[in-house]
Amino acid sequence: MIEGGVTAIPIDFDRFARFYDWDTAGESDDIDFYRNLAGRTGGPLLEIGCGTGRVLVPLARSGYRVTGVDISPKMLARARDKIAHASIGERAQLIEADGRSLRIDTRFRLAFIALNSFMHFTSAESRNRVLDVVRDHLVPGGLFAFDVMNPHPEILVEADGRVVHDFTRPGPEDGSISTRFHSQRVDVARQILEINFFYDEQAADGTLRRTTAPFALSYFTRHELELLLDARGFVIENVYGSFDLEPYWTDSPKIIIVARKR
User: Fold this and answer.
1) Single pTM value for the model
2) Hey, which end of the chain has fewer CB within 10 Å, N or C?
3) Residue 5, pLDDT score
């Protein structure tokens, strides 16, 4: 039990695998951002938490050598299918591993953690470990980039356990229609959001199935992240508030950080 009455539930990322691409169908603003960073640094590139290859595959298609690391076998299976379909296996490598304990010989010019995935590291120890892994696998002066949610007060106030309808649309399987709901509670003392996704899926034959997917996210202020990165051997290069490279401000939707290995 987390202090404040919020229960810590281990994350089963495999449970998300069937829904992940369906969930993130509208998420593409970050791909050009990471592609442009890769254009600055050149390859090879490292993605921690690559999931189904949402970012990794477009980067490999653009000609970069990319190594993707993920802890979920089912997510990686979907990424492998995409890589095979795109015929980019010579440029895209997948590793099933915990990003906090990765040890490989390759050194990278750019590492990144996309789409709020850094928020899954909900303890100080886990954040330190993954940042040390990133630092140790970068070449001298290599870039590290990641994006997280900007914790607007209104978002936290609304995290009171209410169930919210997100959307209803076709998928994730052919002929099915699914609805996603979510609920969330906040532990302000620990800066953690406990979130539950509910997927109600109606198959083509009318069968209805519900899948629940609970997980926890840590949220951060800009200055907390800057101090953390400095302590782990990085120098901040830029802080943005959106993938349009707008400066970070109070009302920004994102905190996007680009840092360089010291």
Assistant:
1) 0.93
2) N
3) 39
pLDDT digits (tens, 9 = 90+) for 87-143: 999 999 999 999 999 999 999 999 999 999 999 999 999 999 999 999 999 999 999
Query: Is cis: bond before 153, omega within 30 of 0?
Result: no
The CATH number fitting domain 153-217, selected from 2.20.25, 3.30.420, 1.10.1660, 1.20.1070: 2.20.25
Amino acid at 16: F
Question: Which single residue is written with the structure tokens 């209410």?
Answer: 162
Mean pLDDT of 147-156: 93
Pairing of strands 108-113, 45-48: parallel
CATH architecture of 13-150+220-261: 3-Layer(aba) Sandwich (3.40)
Q: Going by C-beta distance under 8 Å and a sequence separation of 6 or more, which residues neighbour residue 58?
A: 31, 35
